[in-house]
Amino acid sequence: MKVQHKVFLASVAIGLFVWIADAVMDRVIFYRGTLPELLITNVPGHEIYIRILILICFILFGLIAARLIEKQKIAEKKNEELISGLQNALERVKLLSGLLPVCSSCKKIRDEEGHWTQIELYIRDRSEADFTHSVCPDCFKRLYPEIKNNT
């Protein structure tokens, strides 16, 4: 049985318990009649309305509590899915951090074992990044002075 149903049934049970407790207190305190009479038939008009109102309040409380529990469970499920997605994404991410020793001339990077590796290979092996190559405008002028760059 779902928690929402249990909460609703508990609220109905509590409402009925209050009804019976009120009848028992009438019997014990005011001696107005037998307990079965005081439950339904021999109840003053205003008291029956109060008992019905209390029972309705407990039922409404049960319905509201059941709905709040349902919303909470939906939110928890969404949070679990989000956490799972974030954990999966975190597993796929590789980070570069710290100081990278770079050759000031050829721009190779010294790895953890002391080997010098091209910067593109170093980053590709330790991240999700891939490289494409181009020539910047300054290098283009320096490398190809005879070609006029219109860009």
Can you give a write-up of this model?
The longest helix is centred in the middle third of the chain and has 48 residues, at 45-92. This protein is an all-alpha fold. It folds into 2 domains: 3-92; 97-151, no CATH class. The mean pLDDT is 81. The two termini are 72 Å apart. 65% of the residues lie in helices and 3% in strands. The chain contains 5 helices and 2 strands, in the order H-H-H-E-E-H-H. It has a two-stranded antiparallel sheet with strand order 1-2. It is rod-shaped and about 115 Å long. The chain has helices spanning 3-30, 35-41, 45-92, 119-126, 137-143, and strands spanning 109-110, 116-117.
Number of strands: 2
Strands across the major sheet, in which order? 1-2
Q: Note poorly predicted spans.
A: none
Q: What is the molecular shape?
A: rod-shaped
The share of residues in extended strands comes to: under 5%
Mean pLDDT: 81
Largest sheet at a glance?
2 strands, antiparallel
Tally of alpha and pi helices: 5
The gist of it:
This protein has 151 residues and is mainly α. The protein contains 5 helices and 2 strands, in the order αααββαα.
